[in-house]
């Protein structure tokens, strides 16, 4: 039996190496592998008999993360990807090795972009770190997993001219109010979706939004946004508490996908060639505030960044913009 298993491993190894390196001498490789394995007995892994406790611990992990304030979308993402992992590896958590994780990632991440691969790695790291902290497993097999290098993407903020073109391309009162709200608050898309009319302090021209990790913060809007928002609200006869609602009855809360489509439609009407999406308004907000002289700690607070390094990215991008402008006139 041991001999049969050994032969199977030798054949598989030679086959795999031949695929990776087509020009290798298969007979020579086989000889070398057989020589290395000569004094070893090889047994197949009895996966069918191994009881996996991943699903059970996953349920507790997700419940804990929900209490920590993770959004429903993030929890769904964690559950979906960790269930994929559970289906792939039917064995007890204490027996999982770094190699098991690497093999899973190699299979799961075929054809994925570096950002998506890093997302998969982060989910595994978070789960196994929690398992160690809760003392379900003695050591963390995910600790050796390294993030892949992502290409640095330079997202150029919208120019004042582009923003003005967007303003002029708006037709309905809702479009005008939505665009101005995005320009002046720098809110995340999820925050815009969640805003209610009652959250707005018209006198102070501010409102409270619920950001990442269910954290509340105060943001401000300009006079133009105040006028356009009030004008838009006067056109509504519904009783929905949301600040932005659908144009068709029964006037439900305007969702994230709808806002994305709306912005895309306005940008096309404005004749703007580059991709315009809600998060670009937030990016432009930070860049313009920085260029106008606002300090990084203030921008960090207004944008709800937990880590100052996130805000620092805008400072670096701002420098790129300054260089770009300088080169244009030199």
Automatic annotation (TrEMBL):
- Supply the alphabetized keyword list: Cell cycle, Cell division, Chromosome partition, Cytoplasm, DNA integration, DNA recombination, DNA-binding
The record's principal subcellular location, in a coarse class, is cytoplasm
Asked if the record carries the keyword Cell division, the reply is: yes
Can you say where in the cell this protein is located?
Answer: Cytoplasm
Annotated ranges, domain Core-binding (CB) = 52-132
Where does the Tyr recombinase domain start and stop, copy by copy?
153-327
List the Pfam families. Answer: Phage_int_SAM_1 (PF02899), Phage_integrase (PF00589)
Q: Does the keyword DNA-binding apply?
A: yes
Q: Give the matching InterPro entries.
A: CB, DNA_brk_join_enz, Integrase-like_cat_sf, Integrase_catalytic, Integrase_recombinase_N, Integrase_SAM-like_N, Tyrosine_recombinase_XerCD
Q: What does this protein do?
A: Site-specific tyrosine recombinase, which acts by catalyzing the cutting and rejoining of the recombining DNA molecules.
The record's similarity note reads:
Belongs to the 'phage' integrase family.
The name of this protein is Tyrosine-type recombinase/integrase
Q: Source species, please?
A: Clostridium brassicae
């Amino acid at each position: 039996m041991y001999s049969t298993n050994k032969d199977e491993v030798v054949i598989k190894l030679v086959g795999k190496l031949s695929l990776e390196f087509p020009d290798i001498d298969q007979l020579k490789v086989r000889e070398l592998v057989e020589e290395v394995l000569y004094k070893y007995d090889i047994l197949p892994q009895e996966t069918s008999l191994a009881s996996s406790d991943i699903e059970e611990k996953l349920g507790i992990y997700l419940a804990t993360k929900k209490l920590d304030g993770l959004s429903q979308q993030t929890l769904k993402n964690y559950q979906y990807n960790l269930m994929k992992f559970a289906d792939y590896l039917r064995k007890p958590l204490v027996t999982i090795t770094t190699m098991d994780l690497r093999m899973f990632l190699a299979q799961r991440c075929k054809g994925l972009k570096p950002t998506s691969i890093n997302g998969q790695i982060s989910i595994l790291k978070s789960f196994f770190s929690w398992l160690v902290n809760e003392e379900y497993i003695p050591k963390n097999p995910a600790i050796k997993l390294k993030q892949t290098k992502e290409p640095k993407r330079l997202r150029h903020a919208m120019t004042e001219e582009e923003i003005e073109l967007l303003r002029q391309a708006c037709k309905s009162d809702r479009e005008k109010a939505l665009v101005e709200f995005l320009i002046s608050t720098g809110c995340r898309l999820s925050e815009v979706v969640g805003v209610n009319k009652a959250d707005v302090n018209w006198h102070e021209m501010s409102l409270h939004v619920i950001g990442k990790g269910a954290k509340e913060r105060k943001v401000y809007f300009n006079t133009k946004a105040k006028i356009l928002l009030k004008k838009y609200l006067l056109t509504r006869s519904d009783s929905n508490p949301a600040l932005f609602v659908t144009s068709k009855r029964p006037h439900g809360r305007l969702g994230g996908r709808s806002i994305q489509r709306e912005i895309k439609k306005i940008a096309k009407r404005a004749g703007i060639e580059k991709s315009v999406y809600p998060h670009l308004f937030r990016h432009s907000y930070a860049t313009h505030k920085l260029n106008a002289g606002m300090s990084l700690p203030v921008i960090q607070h207004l944008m709800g960044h937990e880590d100052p390094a996130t805000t620092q990215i805008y400072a670096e991008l701002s420098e790129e913009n300054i260089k770009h402008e300088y080169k244009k006139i030199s």
